[in-house]
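Human: We require from you a protein record containing the residue sequence and its fold in token form, and nothing else.

Assistant:
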Amino acid sequence: MRRAPAFRLTLLALVGGALLVVAVRAEPPAADPARPTAMGAAAGAEECARCHGEVHASWCLSTHALTVREAVEGVVAPEILAGAEVRHGPGQTRFLRQGTSFQAETLGPTGALARYDLTHVVGKTRIEMLVATLPDGRKQVLPSMREHEAGTWFDYTALYFAGPGGDPRVPPPVAPGDPSFWTGPVRSWDAQCSRCHLSGREVREPAADGTGERTWQRAYGLDCEACHGPSAAHVSHHDETREGPDPIVRLRALPRRRQVDTCLVCHMESEEIVPGWHPGEARDLLEFLDPSLLDDPDRVDPAGRPLELVYAGVSFWSSRCAEEGGLTCATCHDPHGGPNRSAMRTAPRDDAQCARCHQEIAAAPAAHSRHAAGSEGARCVSCHMPFLTVERGHGAITDHTIGIPRPLLRGDRTAQNACAWCHVGDRAAPPGAPPLSEAGIREAYARWWPDAAPTPAWLAAIVAGRRGDYDALERLEALLGDRAAPRFARATAPVLMTRLGHAARERLLAHVGDPDSLVRRRVAVGLVYVERPEAWAALGRLLDDESAPVRAQASRSAQLAPGRLPAHAPMLEQLNRELEAQTRWSPDDDWRWERLADAYALAGLPAQELEAVRRLR
């Protein structure tokens, strides 16, 4: 889920009524080549059980199958069952039972307490989110969240919308009516969450009055076909024809990147730009999604280790171990579920997973780690996959950068390392480690590993850029030119350069044609702040880019300059076409209708503007 953009402004007022009327195409835009066609008909998970009974039985108990459940007895938390009132500062929620169903009484969009039907529980092992179905049919994520193991309640808003550098213990003020308030578009279950929790999800355009079902699904949770593709043709091939290749997607037969994409399409914090990605898709996953990067110190540390709910995608795609070792998610996890936590193929936190590739180190762990053999400090996972405290203290997840501890990496307050995890002490740290100060840790590290490799140049550039060092621009430009650097790091460089002032933003002009679309879309972020005519022309080229996510970001950047757009009729026409396409792709996303309404206002098309506004709820 993404942070809330600024409020929608009445652009008619911003341009003083001096609007340029352009002929915006009324017909739907041509089908975008990035949007795939349907794969075929579904057969359903129960059909798979005929031949794959053992796997199906395991899946039925997995977090994939149970990622979202109806709120019924046996599923809801004890506090809900008991009709208790829970506090999750700055507010509280009182639960009520109505026969076999439940309600939540909490602050509503008018600023008064109101009751809402509590219909679904999301999450099973770590965090439980609650979904309410509003009277108009919308499904929204309630502010109350529950940490499963500790049984503590907290305000969902505090996780995602606290300001940079703010006190993580103090939830930010989010008033009723704000986009980030729990009934607002940022908290929409349909538009923001459901694509990774429902199988066979389809979005439907709301009626002109904003009513009507927006999301349809085949099943709650992620079933067989969510990862292997629609299986009706596979069933027919197996039972009848047996001619030609079997059409089912067999993940292990795919190239590594496509295997990983099947997991990261959900296990990566991102915004869906183009819907319709399907298992086995040969095209780059990031032509469908726009991911979180390494720029936000409230969400990730410089190396890509999460501080918030950004899942494992950012970490795994920044992992040298994963890339050079050819790891996939299924190397360590069984996606069909199993008896181990996190569906691990071996016991959780088992060094055997690492020993398969690092046999010499595993045979003599003390020599490698400088910790006594048999101690927690000599274990692979303690140093290279520590638990990271996330969600402002409400969770701990394994580090999937599979990186090395870097206690000498100083200057970024968010940098996490395994040495401090053990010796300073943090959530889920192994017991018994002697307490050390961070200065003591750095001294020991320098003494034990005097020949340790220096900090990688890409990581030093990210740290310098986030901190605004005197040499940050030079380092970031070098990173942009380093095609061997992690992709997420290269794409972060333009974002950080945008923050370094006018001179740094002008340097982005040289990278408009970067071969990586993930870099180009971040270049578009900064170009709107460059006053030179060639920057505006470059933004226009990016609005016509072959990559849909690049066009999406360019359109958003162009809308940040409403005073300039009316004077550029061709760009305004481009903008409207692009926003029309984006809105038709995801008609359940209120932000897209909002942007389209703003664009129509700029173009002097009040009837179209009103029509777009009516689609909002």
Q: What stands out?
A: The first helix runs from residue 11 to 14.
